Amino acid sequence: MDFIDNQAEESDASSGHSDDEEPQSKKMKMAKEKSKRKKKMVASSDEDEDDDDDEEENRKEMQGFIADDDDEEEDAKSEKSEKSRHSGEDELDDEDLDLINENYDIRETKKQNRVQLGDSSDEDEPIRRPNHEDDDLLSERGSDDGDRRKDRGRGDRGGYGSESERSEDDFIEDDGDAPRRHRKRHRGDENLPEGAEDDARDVFGVEDFNLDEFYDDDDGEDGLEDEEEEIIEDDGEGGEIKIRRKKDTTKKSTLLESIEPSEIDRGFLLPGDKKIAKEDLPERFQLRRTPVTEADDDELESEALWIIKYAFEEGTVTNQADLDQDDKLDCIMNLDPSVYEDRKKAVIKSIKKVLQFIRVRSNSFEPTFIGFYRKEDIDNLLTMNNLWRVYDFDEKWCHLSEKKNKIYDLMRRMREYQELSDDLTAKRRPISDADLMDTKYAETLEQLTDIHANFQLLYGALLDDMIRWEKGRLTGEEEEQEYRVKFKSSIRNDKYQMCVENGIGELAGRFGLTAKQFSENLNWKKHDIEQDPMLPLEAAEEYVCPAFSDSDMVLNGAKFMLAKEISRQPQVRHSVRQEFRQSAHFWIKPTKKGRDTIDQTHPLYDKRYIKSKPVRSLTAEEFLFYHKAKEDGLVDVLIMYESEEDQDSNNYLVNKYLSDSIFQKDEYTENVEQWNSVRDECVNMAITEMLVPYMRDELYNTILEEAKTAVAKKCRKEFASRISRSGYLPDFDNNDDDDDGMDQHGARRIMAVCYPTERDEASFGVMVDENGAIVDYLRMVHFTKRTFGGGNNGLRKAESMDLFKKFVQRRKPHAIGLNIEDMECTRLKRDLEEAVADLFSQNLIYKPIPVFLMDNEAAKVYMRSNVSLAENPDHPPTLRQALSLARLLLDPIPEYAHLWNIDEDIFCLSLHPLQRDIDQEQLALVLSHELVNKVNEEGVDINKCAEFPHYTNMLQFTCGLGPRKATDLLKSIKANDNLIESRSKLVVGCKLGPKVFMNCAGFIKIDTIKVSEKTDAYVEVLDGSRVHPETYEWARKMAVDALEVDDSADPTAALQEIMESPDRLRDLDLDAFADELSRQGFGEKKSTLYDISSELSARYKDLRQPFQEPTGELLYDLLARSGKEIREGAKVLGTVQSVQYRKVDKDAADSMLPDVGEDGLFTCPCCKSFTSSAPGGIQEHMLGDSRQGGCPGTPVGIRVRFDNGMTGFCPNKNISSSHVDNPLTRVKINQPYYFKVLKLDKERFSLFLSCKSSDLKEDDLSQRDQYWDEHQYQADLELMKSESKKKTEANTRVKRVIAHPNFHNVSYEAATKMLDEMDWSECIIRPSANKDSGLSVTWKICDRVYHNFFVKESAKDQVFSIGRQLSVGGEDFEDLDELIARFVQPMIQISHEITTHKYFFPNGTCEETEAVEQFVREKKRELGRSPYVFSASYRQPCQFCISYMFDNTERIRHEYFKIVPHGVRFRHQNFDTLDRMMAWFKRHFHEPPIELRRSAIPAPQYRVGAPPAAPYYPPQFVGYH
Question: What residue spans in the chain does CATH classification 2.40.50.140 cover?
Answer without folding.
Answer: 1126-1263
